[in-house]
Amino acid sequence: MKTADPELMRAINRFHVMDAIRRFGPVSRVEITELTALSPTTVSAITAALLDDRLIVPEHVGAVRDLGRGRPRVMLRLNPEVAHVVGVKLASDQITVAVTDFCGDILHSLALPVRIDRQTATVIADLVEDGVRRCVSDAGLDLSDLSGICVGLPGVVERAAGVCRQSPILQERDVPFGADLAARLGTPTSIDSDVNLAALAEHWFGQARGLNDFLVVNVERSLGLGILHNGELFRGANGLSPDLGDFMLRAPGEGGGRLADVASETAALADAEPFLKGIAGDLPARPDRAMAALIQRAEAGDADCRRVLAKAGESLGFAIANLITLFAPPKVIVSGRAMTASDCFIHPLRAAVAASLPASFADVSEIVVREWSDRIWVQGAAAMTLRDLYGAPWGTTGPAPNALGVGATQTGGAA
Amino acid sequence: MKTADPELMRAINRFHVMDAIRRFGPVSRVEITELTALSPTTVSAITAALLDDRLIVPEHVGAVRDLGRGRPRVMLRLNPEVAHVVGVKLASDQITVAVTDFCGDILHSLALPVRIDRQTATVIADLVEDGVRRCVSDAGLDLSDLSGICVGLPGVVERAAGVCRQSPILQERDVPFGADLAARLGTPTSIDSDVNLAALAEHWFGQARGLNDFLVVNVERSLGLGILHNGELFRGANGLSPDLGDFMLRAPGEGGGRLADVASETAALADAEPFLKGIAGDLPARPDRAMAALIQRAEAGDADCRRVLAKAGESLGFAIANLITLFAPPKVIVSGRAMTASDCFIHPLRAAVAASLPASFADVSEIVVREWSDRIWVQGAAAMTLRDLYGAPWGTTGPAPNALGVGATQTGGAA
DNA sequence: CGTTTTTTGTCCGAGATGCAAACTAAATCT
DNA sequence: AGATTTAGTTTGCATCTCGGACAAAAAACG
To answer: Are B58 and B151 within one domain?
Structure first.
């Protein structure tokens, strides 16, 4: 338990200031005063220190003429160049690498279409190492310019230990990617579940800005679940991110059944295999094509294919409903590359959620589908690392209500 | 967001000191220094203030001769008399009231066997008011001596608002018991889900001392779920405690089914009704007797009755397994008045948990059955109120590893 | 153009806190 | 009785935040 000394106090307030600057774009010191409820004196002192450390920079650009007549405000913003971060996402058939600056903007990105599934952890680490080196140099940087690297991958990840306990894209268990890559690249490297990164990215930059509670459900080859609760990523008591694939659908006496065996792309393809025979050549080797074929057929009206997707959607909706009764999140974000784009999947999902929720929960959660984008993962990795950089002493994570400059300065985020 | 000033600092450290004293029985200042990692100076200042406020008292009793030879330590302990709290538990057939002191010890308690189910909220409030007045005066106190009252009842409770959203023992919804009783008794009154109180009590005084993560599942007329996560009571984003009865057992396409309709006492009795006909007279009016009969028959070997209990146990085990994959709690405490005492219920429950958990979770959770006791509820109510009294600024709740004086001073609680 | 007004940001002293070190208190050991 | 040892307190200093006075920089005014 951390003892509370003046230093901690300063750390907390400095974090609040940094967070306000990050969330509300360029802001003046007076605005920070209002946002943080700190005194002008304190804000002045802290911003002076931050300027000294080059973490923030002033912006004298006249920009929009200040409407008042007094001394003009000097706007402060994060200094993009003070730090750079690499985000990596491992998926079954692709490695994505991107370099972002201190603001989370992507400088350069790189996608390696590689079938990871069958490779050993060492080979994967080789590929990641190459990808990172390449991407960093393409961005005009050097490895030594990096403040950190964060790798996201599906499965059960113990972030604190830097170990991937188990993943659908790895044959091995307990793979210490964190230490391994840190040693290879000479840069602090963290790893986390890919969906956790997505959740963090939605919180900082995406659809869930300003929301302190929401779920992210990702449907790809495997099922991922990211939970933000009370503004924090939710992890189990063991520090592991929960695995939605392990959710059980029925009591063992009624047949049991893991959700991953029904609702993932892998499962859907297995179910649909008889109906897809001989369609697109070597399907097993190209699951993405097989998925596309399955969805296309379903949307064209093929009853068998529709049934497969509907069953998957319904099962997932059932699980989501149970999660909603637990967490009561105002928003549930469903993402994924293929299935989630089809109404044949989403409709049954929504219906199952509606049918499974008690009346009192009928309207608490909005379920939205997020279109696929590599950006979100990588930004999540960046956010995760940046969060470490301007460390939140007691683990706060701030939303970013209007990073796009949407609504000026009135969102009551300070209260 | 709370701004960090010296005052907050002091509040945090004062809480740590109070918590150390509560958790580790009578302790000396040096021990507090070790436990909290604060400097002797600070501990001295804070304890002086606490002594001044009479929140703690010194204990000069020579007791066990200090083994060293220097100046003897002055042991400090909570002052039991500085505050008194009333805890109330509402169950379908009984109201329990108790007065506790500042240490959580019960001074006087009172059980009113009343069938609450059919009464209006007003009548129940009348009964509670009478019970509290009676119990307080029997304890030799006056209402004005009370620091607070806490009422626990099954169902969905919004503690912050003092409102019971919905409860199996109330016909009405959105009953503002908190404000109502506060007005009637002139004392700050809070309400919470009964299982939350039980969870808090297990944490402070019971089987889960020192555990920061565990679940409490209570099986009575309805199903309750209390979650302690990261040392805090877990509530959904809306501030409501989760309701285990709303957990769904199957996807709607497979028939759906609420857990409460299968695994509660009410459900078991409904299922068993055909087999119990004409056994013990007016069964519907005495569900407790009916339950006893059901269990007795099951244990005697009646296949029908065994099946009913087994189904209930298995369904509940299934739900618990899904909760374990989410929260990974080291311990799950199952409590209840009747069913949980029978192996006909517990065995299928354990089997279902084991069968439903993925291999990696096989050993993370120990499932224990807690014997029934009114004490635990009432102590939970006390703990809830006391927690407000020596307020934790950022919402910490401390465990009490060895309140019974089991292991001296080495439990590394300070780290 | 010079002065006033207004708003922003900084400096100064007061108050509160925690910590290290010196100091006092109270017991045992010799 | 005096030395020794351990417990707790007092003193001096550094750090933090805050309120109020002050300096700065622009528009508004005469």
So the answer is: no
pTM above 0.85, yes or no: yes
Give the whole-number percent of chain A exceeding pLDDT 90.
59
Report which DSSP code applies to A281.
S
Q: Which of A1, A8, A356 sits opposite B414 (nearest CB)?
A: A1
Distance CA A403, CA A23 (A): 6
- Per the CB < 8 A criterion, the answer to whether A151 and A86 are in contact is no
pLDDT-derived band at B411, boundaries 50, 70, 90: very low
Establish if A343 belongs to a structural domain.
Answer: yes
The answer to whether B240 touches B225, Cβ cutoff 8 Å, is no
Residue B400 belongs to a domain: no
Bigger pLDDT: B233 vs B60? B233
The reply to whether A73 and A89 lie within a common domain is no
Task: Give the mutation candidate from B211, B318, B331, B366 for the A interface (greatest A CB count, under 10 A).
Answer: B318
Q: Determine the structural domain holding residue B184 and report its residue range.
A: 83-202+374-389
Q: Are residues A340 and A257 in the same domain?
A: yes
Query: Does residue A88 sit in the same domain as residue A48?
Result: no
- Closest CA relative to residue A320, chosen from A277, A271, A359, A355: A355
**Alpha-carbon dihedral B412, B335, B167, B204, rounded to 10 degrees:** -20
Instruction: Please report the residues numbered 313 through 332 in chain B whose beta carbons come closer than 8 angstroms to any beta carbon of chain A.
Output: 314-315, 317-318, 321-322, 325-330
Nearest residue to nucleotide D26, by CA–C1' distance, is A71
Q: Could A253 and B156 be called an inter-chain contact, meaning their C-beta atoms sit closer than 8 Å?
A: no
Helices A177-185 and A121-138: angle between axes, nearest 10 degrees: 40
Domain boundary at B24, B54, B78, which?
Answer: B78
Residues 37-96 of A with CB under 7 A from strand C: 40-41, 44, 47-48, 68-74
Q: Identify which of B229, B315, B330 has the shortest CB distance to residue A251.
A: B315
Domain match, A356 and A227 both: yes
Q: Look at residue A55 and tell me if it is in a domain.
A: yes
Tokens found for residue B125:
């409030």
Whether any strand C atom is under 7 angstroms from the Cβ of A30: the reply reads: yes
B38 vs B339, more confident: B38
A399/B contact by beta carbon, under 8 A: no
Total of domains in chain A: 3
Say yes or no: B192 and B238 in one domain.
no
Residues of chain A where predicted confidence (pLDDT) is lower than 70: 1, 61-67, 277-285, 391-415
